[in-house]
Amino acid sequence: MNTRLISPIQPFFMIHTHKSYQAKTANYNGISHFYRFTVDDEALAVNVVPDGSADIIFKLHDDNPEAWICGSSRKLSNTLIERGCFYFGVRFQIGIMPSFLPLKPKDIVDQSIPLNLVYVLAGLLIERVAQSQTFEQQINAFNQVCGTQQSSQHIPELSQRLVQLMLHHRGNISIPELCHHSGYSARTISSAFNDYYGFSPKAFNMMLRYQQSLERLMKNRGGRLTDLATDVGYADQSHFFRQFKHFNGQGPKEFQNTLKQHLIQV
Predict the structure, then answer these.
(1) Residues 6+ apart with CB under 8 A from 101
(2) Which helix (H) or strand (E) holds 130?
(3) Which of 82, 148, 183, 210 has its CA 20 to 30 A from that of 255?
């Protein structure tokens, strides 16, 4: 199935660390992109939005570098960015888990788990990344340790098929349509999807539409919201405004103003 990717975005990391934020698209081994940032002034509590993806995040400081595997949140939450620490992250594509970890997405939804609890080479990986000085060196260190690892996962065929259909339709596919394309009942679909991904199909579709609208807003800060709502698949503008604010904490117009203030664009 030819599926154009929806890039998972965490906009408030980019907004609050825009002076130091760097990113590099990958699109290999299930990786969406690498990123890194730091905060010099003061610690920040930064909003985390639902994105359907997994991140491996390294906190790099002299005394004790650390790393976590972080799952998607189901609703708007927040996390603390510490002053004076450098952060390096690997964000995986929506619905994809790092193949070298014996986990499924449901295992880490709304959680951050120390990497050394689930990955035998965590110590080596953290050491190599911490010793790397540049962004490119950190990316290379990650790929050298993790890129050749054998997959330790079994992805159920039905769950994989369902997420591919949702991505292909960009969150605009109903449960009856999923039943038609997959050949399974609504109950089986809902049970299988939630068991692997930790989301209901309806909630996952809503998250995909939000992420798509987020990407569009960040690429075109001055775009017409009425056109965006229609293009992304919302029934009307009021529905779009409610759903966006539910996931984002700000309505789309307020968020546009925030982007203009910080001159953020992807």
Answers:
(1) 69, 118, 119, 152, 153
(2) helix 122-131
(3) 82
